[in-house]
Amino acid sequence: MFMENKVGKDKAPGQNKEFTILVNAREKTWSEKKIGSNEVINLAFGSVSQDPNVSYTVTYKKGENGKPEGIMVKGDEVRVKEGMRFNVTQTNRS
Q1: pLDDT > 70: what percent of the chain?
Q2: Looking at the domain assignment, is residue 73 inside a domain?
Q3: I need a surface site. Which of 52, 55, 61, 79 has the fewest CB within 10 A?
């Protein structure tokens, strides 16, 4: 009798990988292949301010080989890599 080896989508190798990243020098765990600018801000500050006078700068280093470092603007996403570093600063316009 032949038994077929079925691997569910959620059991496929690499599908449930967790990445350890640094956000403002603090270790965080991320389990998605990509991360958006608002998600990085949430990891740094707990939420994204709705105040129109507040803006954020998100920079990253140690990214994938095609783009190892850069600046994220609102709505940007980048592929996550183990050990990636994000720096988030919040600015209040006066």
Answers
A1: 83
A2: yes
A3: 52
